[in-house]
Each structure stands twice: as C-alpha cells, then as structure tokens.
Design brief:
The complex is a heterodimer of chains A (about 375) and B (about 525). Chain A is mainly alpha-helical and about 375 residues long. Chain A has one domain. Chain A has 16 helices and four strands. The two termini of chain A are about 25 Å apart. With about 525 residues, chain B is mostly helical. Chain B has four domains: about 35 residues; about 80 residues; about 90 residues; about 220 residues, no CATH class. Chain B has 22 helices and two strands. In chain B, α7 packs parallel to α9, α14 packs antiparallel against α19 and α16 packs across α17. Chain B is elongated. Classes of the chains: A mainly alpha (about 375), B mainly alpha (about 525). Chains A and B meet through α6, α7, α12 and α14 of A and α15, α20 and α22 of B.
Chain lengths: ~375, ~525
Amino acid sequence: MIAEAADEKPRDGGEGLTFWFLGLVLLIILPALNVLPSDDSWLHVSDFTLNRFGKFLAFAILALGLDLIWGYTGILSLGHGVFFGIGAYCIGMHLMLTIGTESVYGNDLPDFMVWNQVKELPLFWKPFYSFWVAVLGAILVPVFCALIFGFLAFRSRIKGVYFAIITQAVALSAWLVFNRNETNLGGTNGLTDFKQILGFRLSESGTQRALYVITVLALGGAYFLCRWIIQSRAGKVLVAIRDSEQRVFFSGYSPATYKLFVFVVSAGLAGLAGMLYVPQVGIITPGQIGVLPSLEMVIWVAVGGRGTLIGAIIGAVGVNFGRSILTNYFPELWPFFLGGLFIAVVLIFPDGLVGLMRRLTIGSVRKTLGLEKPSAASEGAQP
Amino acid sequence: MQGRELTGVKDRLGIGAIAGVAALALFVWGEFARAVEASAAPVLSVPSIAGPLALADVKALTERLASDDPAVHDQAFRIIIQTGDARFLVLLDEAVVDADRATRVAVKPVKDLLKNKLKLASETDDVRRSAAADLGTSRQLSAVPWLERAAANEPNRWVRYAMEESAALLQLTVGETVLKARAATILGELQSQNGLPALKEFVQQAASDPVSREANQPALRAAQGAIEQIELWSTWANVFETVFRGISLSSILLIMSVGLAIVFGLMGVINMAHGELMMVGAYATFVTQELFKAFLPPHLFDAYFLVALPVSFLVAGICGLILEATVIRFLYGRPLETMLATWGVSLVLIQSARVYFGDLTAVTAPAWLSGGAQVMVGVYLPYNRLFIIGLSVLCVTGIYVLLFRSNLGLRVRAVTQNRNMSACLGIPTRKVDAYTFAFGSGLAGLAGCALTLVGNVEPGLGQNYIVDSFMVVVTGGVGKLAGTIVAALGIGSLNKFLEPSFGAVYGKVFILVLVILFLQRRPSGLYALKGRQVD
C-alpha cells in the first residue's frame, strides 16, 4: 500500500495524457467521422455506433463514481444501480410527459397510466413537466437518498461485507418497488416510447449527436471532479480509510463523514449517468437497476482497474463493448463470460486492464533498457 | 299501538289464509299426483324395486326423469335414488349414451347425487369426505338422512365433521323452516367455514322478506349468532395459519442461512454462490428421482426422497469443496473480492444448469409427503411444510452437536474467535476452513432438496431466497448459532405477518428498513462476539 501511494503522482501524469488523447478522439474525431465522410466510406462512424458509444460513456460516468467509493475508499456498494435508476426515471418521467398527445392512446397521460386506468396524473409526476426540475432531480434525488442511507449506514459503522449486503438488499427492494404498477412508474415495462427533448426530436441523428457530445463533456467534467477530489487532502484521507480505517479514526478524523461525502458524490454521478443514458437509449426499465446490473457496474471498475480513474472509464466502455458483441453473436455464452470475468478479475488480474498493461509494459521496457526508472516506465505505459 | 296489534292480527289472519290455501292446493295436487301415478304405474314394471334391473328398465326410468310432469319425474327420481347401487350407475351411463340432450340434462344431477350417496360408503377417507362436501351443496333434501346415518357410523373425525356440516347446510338451504334454526345453531357450533356464505345469504333473504320474517325469527337469530361465532373462529384460525406459514418460511431460511453464517463467522466470507449450491442440491434431488424412475420398480419410488437427502448434501458439499480449493482459498482476508468471485461462480452455475437442464423441471413429492393434517376446524397443515420444519430442527440440532460437542466443532470455534492464535496452537486452520465450507455448502444442498417439496426446480431457484438469507446472517451476527435462529425466525415470520396487510413487496421493503434501523443499535447483529475487535 505504501509503495502504491508513492507512485501515485507519476501515474496521474500518465493518466492525464491518456485522458486528453481520449478526450480528443471521443469529443471531436468520432462525431466528425459521423458527420463528414460519406455513408459508405470505411472511415464513417454510423449513427448507431455513435449512439452506442454515448451509452457506454454514460456508464463510464457511473463507473467513475463507483471507483471513487470502491477503488479509493474501499467501500463496496452493490446498490449503485438504484441511484442510476432514480436519475434515469427522473428524466424519463419528464420525457414521458413531453410525449403529450402523441402517445398511442392519444391521451395527455402516459400510455401505461391509461392502460392501468389511472385517471389523473399522480402528484409526484407534476414537477417533472419542467425540464430543469427533471435534470436537477436526476442528480439531487439520488444525492438525497444516498445522504439518508449513507448517514444511517456509516453512523452505525456498517462496513465491509455488511455494507455490501445491505446495499444489495436495497437494490433488490428498489427493483421490487419499481416493478409494481401502483407506484405509477410504468411497472415491468418501465418508461419508453419517448418522442422529443426540449423540442428536438429524439429520432433525429442531430439530436443524438448533440446528446453524445453532452455526454462526453459530462464525462470530462466528472473526471475532473473526481481527480480534484482524490488529489485534495480529502482524497488522501479516503485512501487512508481504505487502507486502515481504524488508524484514520485514531488520528482524529471522522471516517464516517468522509465516507458519507464520497458516497453522496458517487450517487450524484450515478444519477447523472442515468439522466444521460435514458434519452440516448430511449427506455428505462426496472431490469436495469436490480441486483445483477448493480453488480455488473462493480465489475466494470474491477476490469478497468480500480484505484485509477482512467481504468474505470476503460472498464465501463470495454466491458459493455464486449457485452454488445458477445450477446449479439453468442447470447448463451454471455453469462459464462461475465461469470468468468468476475472470477478472473479477482483471482488473476486484481489491478484490472490498466494494471495489466502497466505490468506488461514495465516488464518489456525493463527487458530492453535494462533497469529503467519506474516513473518513466509508467508514463510510457499508458496506451 | 292498537293499530299495530290490529295489523298484526290481520297479518296472522293473512298467513293463516295462505297456509290454508296452500294446504288445500297440496292436498289436491297430492290426489292428482296419486291418480297420475296410478295411471302411469303399468308403464314401469314393479320388478324394478324387487329384483335386478335390466338396461331397458333403466332406460325407461331415464325417460321418465326427463318427463315434463313433475309427478312422473319425482317417482322415477325416488326409485333411482332408493334402489341405485354401483351396478345401476354403470347401467345409467349406458342408458344415456344415445339419449337426447334433455334426458342427459335431467339424468346428470340424479346421477351425481347417486354417485355421492354411494361414495359415502367408500373405504377411502378423502372420497367419503369430498362426497359429503358435494352433497352439502347439492340442494337435495333427500341427502340429509343419508348424511346423518353415515355420520353416526363414521370413525374418522374430520369426515364425520364434513357429513354433519353438509347435513346442517342442506337443512338450512332447502329444509323446512322449523328445522332451520337448529341447522344454523349446528353450523355455528361446528365453526363451519363452508356454511358461512349460506348463513349470510339466509340472513339477507329472511330479513328482506316480510312474509316469512315472522316464521323465520328464531332461525334468523340463530343464524346471526352462528355467523358471529364462525367469524371469530376464522380470525383465530387465520392467525394460527399465519404463524405456521411464518415458521415454515423461517425454517427454510434457517437451513439456508445457518451454513452461510458459520462460514461467514469462520472466514469472514459471504458466499454469494450459496443460493446456487442450493440449486445444485435441488437438481441432485431431481436427478435422484429420475434415476429411481428409470432403474427401480415403481413401488420403491417414494423412497427416492430419503435417498435424495444425503445425496444432495454430498453433491453440494463436494461442489463446495471444489469451490473452496479453486477460488476461495486464494482470497483469504479479502472478503469483498470473494463476494465478487463467488458471484461469478454463481452466474456460471446458473447458466450451466440452464443449458443442461433447460428452464423448468419439477420434482414429484413422494406420496407420504402429500396431503396434510387437519389439527382443528379451518386449520390445515400440509405434510411437506411440517417435514421442512422437522428437517430444520434436525439440522440445527446436528449443527449444535457438531459445533459444541465434537472435536472439529471445538476447532471451528477456536478459529472463529482467533485465527492466528489457533494456528499457533497447532490447529490446521486451512483444513478447518475447507471442511467447514464444505459442510456449509452441504447444508445449502439440503435446503435445496427441501425446497423441491414446495416449488419448482429451476436454475434461478437460489436467487429467490438468497438476499433474505444474507439479511438473516447480518441481523443474526457472527459466530452464535442462536443469533441465526432468532434472526431467521424473526425475518421469516415478519415476512408472513406483513404480507396480508402490506403485500409481499412492501413487506420486504419494510423488513429491510427495520434491519437497517436495527443495525443502528447493534451494528454487529443480535449476538456479537464479545471482546476487543481491531481490523
């Protein structure tokens, strides 16, 4: 742990470089390739691909938050799907309301309410007529929920396995509740069939491209926020809590406050991710917020490499990319692959892809150059 | 005052007049019927009552049943009901094979009645019982004497109960007005659940009908008393059954979580694949059943479950041993990573089961576990649930003996309390870990075997209960058997108690909130190990 803390600095420098490179590709080159070349050029990035990447990058925002709490602070939350879901449902409710009379039943109410014979819009739906309330709600409602739950959990020093289990139970309960029809959240079918956002048609590629760019920008913002947090003094305390909570406690800090803070931040990021996810994918169902999705989110971080911000992004994009390919060609194999990933990432490469690459590159560089300085090697290690 | 008296007298006069006219009408009708009977008698030969019936006679009877003339119909009806036996039933079936629709419609209720009458003398308790219940709703007053006669000789308490209940029910619904009060009282004393709707209907009818109100007054009062009595009783029966269901769910949770809790206490590891080891146990039971079906004579089939119990324990135990040796062994001291890895294992196991066995398979419960015991009126305890409760008691006793009365248990407890110290004292901690993990997995297998009695065998079987059993472990605390037992009982019964008023979903949410609040007061569960703890 001490050794790891020592090479924190150079790694950040390397990460920064990678980040700018990735940012350039994602923010400018991909959309440009979507717009500029003709449709049959090999350079052309289809609308579908761009949209898919938008989804992955929304997941990456969530992975950043999860990395903050698990990778840096050592708290395993198996309930982040809930925060993601709350954010997603907030914006989803707004989008449902903007459908207006374009819906199948031609009623002002969302279709599923007509179907369930709800005559009047429930009270808690009403504020979501406003776009800005929905956007703020998508971030603040998860934050508020995390605040209450985190306060109760950390105050009574629920930690480690206990915390993981309780959060998993929360995910299960939320899934059960969102599935019910009488909560007026669309039941098993969730919210879908959106038409427009702020007057722009969601089916148009221009709207989707704009959403993609917003997602990339939000990811960049989230990255800088997390980076700022972990480089601050508070960030050092977080890592210290991961390594020995008892010692932090005896040194006069209050671990519960720091943990609550980081939990709330990560919940907010999860809500943001959900908010960006919904208009791009066009549907949100309880199936995306239950126990298994929440666990998969943890695996993104683990695969990418926890304790490195860039790792979280790489993991989220990489695993989801692999998933969309594998479920397309071998749908039966995906659970085996995912299960294998869970086992392998814990047993064989605990530092994830980033750690693996660093180890490989350090090895090869050392072989060719004799004994290199580790800091320089790790700078060159980034792809 | 006077006016009312006068109208009262008038009423009485009116009733008297009606009764008189009715009596007269009945008399005339009776005479007429007798005349018709006399004229019709030659058509039906007399031997029908004395000697054995021929198919032609039965045919004639069925035709007379379909007759529009009530007297003809009634006579045929009486003959059939009084003389009918098993052979007659067969003839009756033959007789209507090529009859027209009207005849078949007319014969059907008579045949059912006769069938049930014959079934009252059956040797099987359940047949007698269901026949009595059927007669109760048949609205045929002629069934009352049969039921009463059968009840007098009935050895089985619950069958006798059904007979008495049906007799009273018939008297209440179609019997004479004078006997209704007694019938209602009997139904009330029997706490008859089946009688409740009929009583309510009777009260409603009698209260709304001004003509018969006077005559029905005593019966009405008796019926109202009976309704109150039955409703009070059914409330208590409900409470009793809820408690039973709670205990039954608790015992499933208990067998599941006790293994989980021991492993958690010993190694600090939550095995997320515990539910899948349960699934392995369930499939082991299924495979045992299939093997019995394929290779052994049918009369041995019911014994399969007794074989399946140890088989599922062993198979799941071996799976646990393999899991420990290949995955968990390398993750000591990293509980969070172990959770992820075991979750991966569970995904792989679920998908393997899905690919190999398909989505849904069912185990036939052995005959000696189907059915149930009736302990009191309205309370019926299924044998399979009783068996599961018994199994869980047995498991807990076994674990208690193993943990607190054996050498291995001593070591397990020592390692649970202080791993390093135990290792210094020469306890092979790794071996203890492996055996304990295998044992805990075996218990999961046993739980899976028990679950096949109450549900389908499917790949996702373990997922339904797993989060609940985690909650049990968290609430119960580490290292104490009592904690797990109390937590399992608490969460299981609470689940069933909240279900009726909150619904299953909100009940679960409510329990989660309760657990979180509970952990505020006792962060390490009900019974935490005392002592200094440093991580």
